[in-house]
Write a structure and sequence with these properties.
Helix content is 25%, strand content 42%. The strands form 2 sheets. Strands 7-6-5-4-8 form a 5-stranded antiparallel β-sheet. A 3-stranded mixed β-sheet has the order 1-2-3. Strand 1 and strand 2 form a beta hairpin. It is elongated and about 55 Å long. Helix 1 packs across helix 2. The protein folds into 2 domains: 78 residues, 2-Layer Sandwich (GMP Synthetase, Chain A, domain 3), CATH 3.30.300.70; 65 residues, SH3 type barrels. By secondary structure, the chain is an alpha+beta fold. Pfam families: DUF150_C, RimP_N. This is Ribosome maturation factor RimP. It is found in: Cytoplasm. Keywords: Cytoplasm, Ribosome biogenesis. Its main location: cytoplasm.
Length: 159
Amino acid sequence: MQKDDVAGRITAVAEQVLTPQGLELVEVEYKREGRQMVLRLFVDKPGGISLDDCAAVSRELSEILDVEDFIRENYTLEVSSPGLNRPLKKEADYERYAGRLVKVRTFELLADEEGNRRKTFLGDLVGLSDGVVTLTLREGQLARIPLDKIAKANLEFEF
C-alpha cells in the first residue's frame, strides 16, 4: 500500500477513535525514518492535549490497526501533541486561531498591500474569508494570501 493510501486509511480510522473523545486529528505522517517506517499522528483538543490522552489514543488505535492489518510494513506508532507551533491545516483553523501570531509560507512570491513580494509572512491572523487568509504583518500592513497558495502555515509562539 502506498504512503498516501496508508495516510488516508489511517485518517478515517483515527477520526472514529478521536471524535467520540472530543479530540481532533491535526495531521498524519507516514514516512521512513532511517530503516523504520513511522506512523505519527498529531492530535489536539480545546485547552490542549495531555500525555494521558496521547497514551489512550495510542492504545486504542494500536488495537484497531492490529485487527485491520492493512499496513504491510513494520512501523512505529507515535501519537503526539502538535506542539506550540501547531500547523494550520483546515479552513476552520484559520478562524479558530484569529488574533494569534502565525507564520505562513507560500509556494510562490506574493505581494503584501504595499507591493513587497515575499514567500514568508509573519503576522497576526485576521481570519479567512472567501478562500483568502488575511494577516496583519509585523510591519503593520495587511497581506491577503489565497489558501491554495499556502505551502505551510503554523502558529508562532512568542516568548
